[in-house]
Amino acid sequence: MDVLVTYDIATLDRKGARRLSQVASICERYGTRVQYSVFECRLDPVLLERLKGELMDTIDPEEDAIDVYRLDRSFDETRTSLGRPRAARAASGWIFRSHPNLR
């Protein structure tokens, strides 16, 4: 399934900056960054639960926010891109890592 992950991590102190870095690293293991705090991920249900668990173990739920959107269709079917084109797109077999610039 295709999943969009967005986050807003409070970075008012060093702990927040560290959480931001950790959240980004976790998301990079599961998908491709398309904006600073937005990742496209193609995951099976087990990997989705693992991703959510890792994120919950990392954030401060009183300070930080993460939204995970499960898309009912693929990125290629749901995405409308405006502006500069992206160099690559998610392939059907893509799961963990792909090119850093998706269409």
Task: List the defining traits of the structure above.
34% helix; globular; Alpha-Beta Plaits; 103 residues; disordered C terminus; 4-stranded antiparallel β-sheet; 22% strand
Question: What is the CA-based Rg, rounded?
Answer: 14 Å
Strand order of the largest sheet: 2-3-1-4
CATH class category: Alpha Beta
The proportion of residues forming helix, as a percent range, comes to 25-40%
- CATH architecture descriptor name: 2-Layer Sandwich
Q: Assign an overall shape.
A: globular
Structural class by SSE content: alpha+beta
Strand content: 15-25%
Count of DSSP H/I helices: 3
Average per-residue pLDDT, rounded, comes to 86
Q: The CATH topology, please? A: Alpha-Beta Plaits
Number of self-contained structural domains: 1
Largest sheet: 4 strands, antiparallel
**Helix and strand element order:** EHEEHEH
Topology:
Blueprint lengths: L1 E7 L5 H17 E5 L2 E5 L2 H14 L6 E6 L4 H4 L25
Antiparallel strand pairs: 1-3, 1-4, 2-3
Helix pairs in contact: 1-2
Structure description:
The protein has helices spanning 14-30, 45-58, 75-78, and strands spanning 2-8, 31-35, 38-42, 65-70. With 103 residues, the chain is an alpha+beta fold. The chain has a single domain (2-76), classed as Alpha-Beta Plaits. It has a 4-stranded antiparallel sheet, covered by helices on one side. Strand 2 (31-35) and strand 3 form a beta hairpin. The longest helix is centred in the N-terminal third of the chain and has 17 residues, at 14-30. The protein is globular, with a radius of gyration of 14 Å.
Précis, in short:
This protein has helices at residues 14-30, 45-58, 75-78; strands at residues 2-8, 31-35, 38-42, 65-70. The chain has 103 residues and is α+β, with helices and mostly antiparallel strands. The chain has a four-stranded antiparallel beta sheet, covered by helices on one side.
